[in-house]
UniProtKB/TrEMBL annotation:
Cofactor(s) needed by this chain: pyridoxal 5'-phosphate
Entry keywords, A to Z: Amino-acid biosynthesis, Aminotransferase, Histidine biosynthesis, Pyridoxal phosphate, Transferase
Protein name: Histidinol-phosphate aminotransferase
Residues of the Aminotransferase class I/classII large domain: 31-349
Pathway: Amino-acid biosynthesis; L-histidine biosynthesis; L-histidine from 5-phospho-alpha-D-ribose 1-diphosphate: step 7/9
Gene label: hisC
A Pfam short name: Aminotran_1_2
The reaction(s) this protein catalyses: L-histidinol phosphate + 2-oxoglutarate = 3-(imidazol-4-yl)-2-oxopropyl phosphate + L-glutamate
Record-stated family: Belongs to the class-II pyridoxal-phosphate-dependent aminotransferase family. Histidinol-phosphate aminotransferase subfamily.
EC number: 2.6.1.9
Modified residues (N6-(pyridoxal phosphate)lysine): K222
InterPro entries linked to this entry: Aminotrans_II_pyridoxalP_BS, Aminotransferase_I/II_large, HisP_aminotrans, HistidinolP_aminotransfase, PyrdxlP-dep_Trfase, PyrdxlP-dep_Trfase_major, PyrdxlP-dep_Trfase_small
GO MF annotation: an example: pyridoxal phosphate binding
């Protein structure tokens, strides 16, 4: 007995962790700077930590009440109906929910390349097919309706990522609307705003509220610092609301995750600090790194270093963990997450030393 043929499925490649690198290289974990996974260097909201402690003795109960409370709070934040909020275990959980709700076997999904691997993974899990539209290094991975529509062929779901991972480019709201206007009525345009808090571009959530062909993904993993709890949500058209009960995994968003997210939503100081810090760090990296970078609206910067794998490996020896972008189809690039000011300054100095030693970079 064997599983079904999974040869078309590629495993998700995460950024390397501190413990993994420390164990492999015999380095004290405290001596490593991890800038590989776009995590919040300031940790979770203190209010979220307090909420976790306060509700830890309730984990014997299913999270029905907390799930309902979080749904209502998110709906209030965005001025939409409760039924339009699909709380999920991370934004990737919402991707699965939308795949279940939208895809029939053989339906196609249009995804950006390079881009977040899980769009295609979820489609294939649900017996869908995948086509791609190309974002180009030549124009800084610029996103517009023409780029998407040039590859569009009637797909059931079209994914847009704004800010885009791994480049940090954005798609203005009018361009998102142009995609939705030009695609077929049965096509759902899904705008992934996992890094939306760090960007100045308007959210597409009002479009999801006004139309029946746009949905938006959001997460608590980045600006809110709750990556380890796996909590996110999607905002869907009102007409899609009743589908949630038919496609979601029972109680998938756990009690502590829901309670932490509720508290984090009201901790404006933590979110503002996280956003300000990321904006400072990405500007610092762009200005001080001895390699060309792409303008970014996320909490990371994509840099062209010539040999991403080689640079990432050598940087680890100096104590900096960054993301080799070979898995994104960008072997000449690395992605550097924004750290605290101290971490960012130290990491850039060490990366510049690495580039110089390897004979790479603009001033090598």
């Amino acid at each position: 007995m064997r599983p079904r043929d999974l040869s078309d499925h590629s495993p998700y490649v995460p950024g390397r962790g501190v413990e993994e690198v420390a164990r492999e290289r015999g380095i004290d974990p405290d001596d490593l700077i991890k800038l590989s996974s776009n995590e919040n260097p300031h940790g979770p909201s203190p209010a979220a930590v307090e909420a976790i402690r306060d509700h830890a003795d309730r984990v014997n109960q299913y999270p029905k009440s907390s799930h309902t409370d979080l749904t209502a709070r998110i709906a209030e934040k965005w001025g939409i109906g409760d039924e339009q909020v699909w709380v999920s275990p991370g934004a990737d959980g919402s991707i699965d929910y939308l795949s279940r709700a939208a895809l029939e076997p053989g339906d196609e999904v249009l995804v950006p390349s390079p881009g977040f691997a899980y769009y295609a993974m979820s489609s294939r899990y649900h017996h869908g097919e995948v086509t791609e539209y190309e974002l180009s290094t030549a124009d800084g991975f610029a996103q517009d309706a023409e780029t998407v529509l040039s590859a569009y062929g009637g797909e059931r779901i079209v994914y847009v990522t704004s800010p885009h991972n791994p480049s940090g480019s954005t798609m203005p709201l009018d361009e998102v609307e142009a995609v939705a206007d030009a695609t077929a009525p049965e096509t759902l345009v899904v705008v992934d705003e996992a890094y939306g808090e760090f960007s100045d571009v308007d959210s597409a959530i009002p479009l999801a509220d006004e139309r029946d062909d746009v949905a938006v993904l959001r997460t608590f993993s980045k600006a809110y610092g709750l990556a380890g709890l796996r909590i996110g949500y999607s905002v869907v058209p009102e007409a899609w609301g009743e589908a949630y009960a038919r496609v979601n995994t029972p109680f998938a968003a756990n009690e502590l995750a829901c309670r932490a997210a509720l508290a984090a939503l009201d901790d404006d100081d933590h979110v503002e600090q996280s956003i300000e810090s990321a904006r400072w760090a990405r500007e610092y990296i762009a200005d001080e790194l001895d390699a060309p970078t792409v303008d970014s609206a996320g909490n990371f910067v994509l840099a062209a270093v010539g040999d991403g794998e080689r640079v990432a490996e050598a940087a680890q020896e100096r104590g900096v963990i960054i993301r080799d972008c070979t898995s994104f189809g960008l072997p000449e690039h690395v992605r550097i997450s924004t750290g605290t000011r101290e971490e960012t300054r130290e990491a850039v100095d060490l990366l510049n030393e690495t580039l110089a030693d390897l004979g790479l970079g603009v001033r090598a």
